[in-house]
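Would you kindly consider the sequence and fold I have copied below?
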Amino acid sequence: MYDLFANFWWVLFPLSGFAFAGWGMFLRYKRQKAVLDLIRSYVENGREPPESLLAQIETLDEGQSGWMSGGQGRGRAPTNYWSLVGLFTMMAGGFGIAALMGVDGGSGAFVIVAMTMGAVAVWALICALTQKRDGVS
C-alpha cells in the first residue's frame, strides 16, 4: 500500500478537484430545486411569483455557462487573461530551465510540463487579445 501511495500521491489532487466540482454541482442543483419548488407553490396557490424570484431563475441559468465563459458566470468578474499569460509564461520558463539543468534526472518530465505551461500561456494570450471589453471586441 505504501508503494501505491508513494507512486501515485499526486492523484489526490485531481480526485479532490473532481469531488469539489461534484459538490458544487450538487449544491447548485439544490438551490435550483428550492427556487423551482417555491415558484411551484406560488402557481399552485394561484398567485403570481415575484419578479425577483423569476430573475433568480435567470441568474441560476447564467451560472451554468461553464468554464468557457471566462469566469463571467455566477456573478464573478471577468478573468484577467493578461495575468494568466504572465503566470504561465514564467512557469513554462522555470520548468524549461529546470529541464535544461537536469533537475528531473533527465527523464524529460519537466520538458513536457514546460511545453504544457507554454501551451496554456499561448491560450491565455489568445483569450486576452480576443476578449471583449465593454462591448468592444
